[in-house]
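User: Good morning. I'm curious how S-adenosylmethionine would be positioned relative to this chain. Could you predict the structure with it bound?
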Amino acid sequence: MSVETGKLYAMKSIAELWDAAADTFDEEADHGLRDPAVRAAWSARLAGWLPDGPLDVLDLGCGTGSLALLLAEQGHRVVGVDLAPRMVARARAKLAGTGASVLVGDAARPPVGDRRFDVLLARHLLWTVPAPGAALSRWTGLLRPGGRLVLVEGRWSTPANVTPGGCGGPGDLGGPGGNAGGPGGDPGGPGGDAGGTTGGDAGSRGGPGGGPGGDAGGDPDGGPGGDPSGGLAGDPGGGLGGDSGDSGGDPGGGPGGELPWAGGVSAADLVAALRPLVADTRVDPLPDPVLWGKEIDDERYAVVARI
Ligand SMILES: C[S@@+](CC[C@H](N)C(=O)[O-])C[C@H]1O[C@@H](n2cnc3c(N)ncnc32)[C@H](O)[C@@H]1O
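Assistant: Good morning! Here's the predicted structure, ligand included:
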């Protein structure tokens, strides 16, 4: 199998896992934003991270479109991108009448042609991207001069201490998903099997995931699952800026391979990865329980990076 074919298979699997989460995704407080207090908290945060608009905003890995809707309500022109068609269907329904559009596609290579944006937003996406360094590099190229990345991320587990948690990522993709220590966790979600050593169990902490828990991961040799051991933590400078066969160098970004940031990425590591790409970065810790609909005990933050 060629590298490119392998990548396609891996991405298809990731999309299927997320599709399986679509029906229940919005049940998590920070996903559906159904509680007015949670919704208002995210709206206020977004307003604080973005300059005055209206702006062209690209929401990558937009899921069911909850943040995209807040942005559209603030007057911005929003384009969402998500790999999972069922997530996209929900986002399109949620955004109907706002003028926002939602595309099915790989956020690592957003299918936006020559369009350029003032802001790229990604919440809880990087942990599930096979080559996050290459994606960051591409994203900066989609920004207009003076544009900014707004990256809402977290570190839900470490290779040495993968705790049950899960944040709704596809199984032990290890993100804010059902299993491998993501801040989320849908114990009853599709999948739910820890899927191997990196897996953890059905998320007991809950969090931003609520995703397709599952058994797709945990195999350090393959599967869109999460062996975070090849991660960038501790070596953020190494290997960033490309994926295998591309512009090269994210560890673990091969076909069906590991997710370098499974389990999430610390703010320090993300800032280190961004440093060669942007003019400045600001980190906003996000410990406020109102954002998550519950108390949290792991690292959550936003990085605002200006090019
Ligand atoms: C944890 S959810 C976050 C959704 C949304 N950003 C939010 O905060 O509510 C991750 C989303 O990223 C999508 N996703 C995962 N990998 C992707 C990729 N390579 N390209 C586009 N979307 C992807 C999944 O389908 C899922 O909808």
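Confidence is low (pLDDT under 50) at residues 160-175, 177-249, 251-256. DSSP finds eight helices and seven strands in the chain.
Let me know if you'd like a different ligand tried.
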